[in-house]
Specification:
The chain is an alpha+beta fold. Helix content is 30%, strand content 23%. The chain is built from eleven helices and 14 strands. The chain has helices at 69-96, 127-137, 148-155, 179-184, 191-194, 209-218, 303-309, 320-327, 331-340, 354-357, 378-402, and strands at 2-8, 16-19, 30-35, 38-51, 63-66, 101-107, 113-119, 140-145, 225-228, 231-239, 244-251, 254-261, 278-281, 284-287. Strands 2-1-4-3-5 form a five-stranded antiparallel β-sheet. A four-stranded antiparallel β-sheet has the order 9-10-11-12, with no helix packed on it. Helix 1 (69-96) crosses helix 2.
């Protein structure tokens, strides 16, 4: 368990946490704490609080002591020196013709160094400027470039609302702001109306963003049909602040837009047509009919209906090609037969479909007592020979007549 306090080194600056180191400190006291830049004077803006050691992974630096009157007076003297250093630095910047704008100057509490904060459009070579400032102040010089938001926070001013700017009064750190926030809040996208004195989007756009997001979820979208006490109509506009809805109501050839509170409207019930559930099984489409609660109302099927419903399953039906493929020897046995064939002899390849594709031949009656098989091509050879002999004889007769 540790006791911590919150310390600010600048007005409305970032809050830093330190260990009380067993000192009795109250809100508003000035303390001397150990920082990265050495000992520094700060104001306690958050009183002591007890926290677990597991909450803080990085060990906190400790408070040295409560500031005395001399320490406070030394801090006031440093503020006076900062004003003198500011004017001197501005003259040196003009002498070197550097495109940079000096914003603020800070003295370290122990007067070991001076920090100069400036803004510029790009990179600036200020090496010669640092040498001149070191020769004047006889101490370490640091120049830091900052952004336009930090510049507005240091200088302060009045915002478009007429009040002091938020970053200069109570904001200790900047929050990201986007143009999407201005669109969701129905603000004008004119840059002069949504920008602050720094030229960036106003930080106050972040304040109401969460309320707009939560309210929009409860309200209907523009263009949706809603039910009102005066009838149905589409939504034309929304008022997020007042939580009202503008609806266009049509009466014959005329239409008017009326404003209704969010509680007075309702959304029409959504009607979804239930699509038929189709399931594909075994290459056939089967429609799943809704279950019938009263079985007595279902008519009995006739014999013809039962006959139509009964279809042979694919497991019972087998195509002839499928049977032939089953009778065919597996690939391993066929490869083994080819490997056993002798070199130089033709390999006989059997076609399993040859028996089905070849036309069936009529069996000739066997002559008893004859074991020799007849050649089916014998008759065809004799027929072709006789035709050639007859043609040759006719040609010889024609030549003899001519002689």
């Amino acid at each position: 368990m540790a006791t911590i306090i919150g310390v600010q080194f600048q007005k409305n600056g970032k809050l830093y946490y330190f260990d009380t180191n067993g000192l009795e400190i109250r809100t508003g006291d000035y303390v001397i704490v150990d920082t990265v830049r050495g000992y520094d004077l700060g104001e306690v803006s958050m009183g002591p609080r007890d926290v677990d050691d597991e909450t803080w992974r990085v060990p906190l630096k400790k408070t040295i002591r409560i500031a005395t009157e001399q320490d406070i007076q030394h801090g006031v003297d440093n503020r006076q020196k900062e004003k003198e250093a500011f004017s001197i630095c501005q003259k040196k910047i003009a002498e070197h013709n550097l495109e940079m704008k000096l914003v603020s100057v800070e003295y370290a509490f122990d007067n070991s160094k001076i920090l100069f904060f400036f803004t510029a459009n790009g990179r600036v070579d200020f090496r010669s400027l640092v040498k001149d400032l070191a020769s004047v102040f006889k101490m370490r010089i640091e120049l830091r470039q900052i952004g336009v938001r930090d510049e507005a926070k240091m200088l302060g001013g009045l915002g478009p609302c007429g009040r002091p700017i938020c970053c200069g009064t109570f904001l200790d750190q900047f929050q990201p702001v986007s143009i999407k926030m201005a669109k969701e809040q129905n603000l004008s996208l004119n840059p002069t109306k949504i920008s602050g004195v720094c030229g960036r989007l106003m930080c106050c756009l972040k304040y109401e963003q969460e309320h707009y997001e939560m309210t929009r979820r409860k309200m209907p979208k523009i263009g949706k049909e809603v039910i009102t006490p005066d009838g149905n109509g589409p939504v034309t506009d929304l008022n997020i602040v007042k939580e009202t809805v503008f609806v266009r109501l049509t009466n014959g050839d005329t239409s008017e837009i009326k404003e209704y509170p969010l509680e007075a409207i309702s959304r029409p019930p959504e009607t979804h047509s239930r699509p038929e559930t189709v399931r594909k099984q075994a290459g056939k489409e089967q429609r799943i009919e809704p279950a019938v609660e009263d079985q007595a109302t279902v008519p009995d099927k006739t014999a013809s209906d039962e006959a139509d419903d009964q279809t042979p399953s694919e497991e019972v039906q087998e195509l002839p090609e499928k049977k032939q493929e089953e009778k065919r020897p597996p690939a391993k046995e066929r490869n083994k037969a080819h490997s056993n064939a002798q070199l130089g002899q033709p390999v006989r390849r059997e076609n399993p479909k040859r028996a089905d594709t070849a036309p069936a031949r009529a069996k000739e009656p066997e002559v008893p007592g004859s074991s020799a098989k007849k050649d089916p091509n014998e008759n065809s050879d004799k027929a072709t020979g006789n035709s050639w002999a007859d043609a040759l004889e006719k040609a010889m007769q024609a030549i003899g007549r001519d002689k």
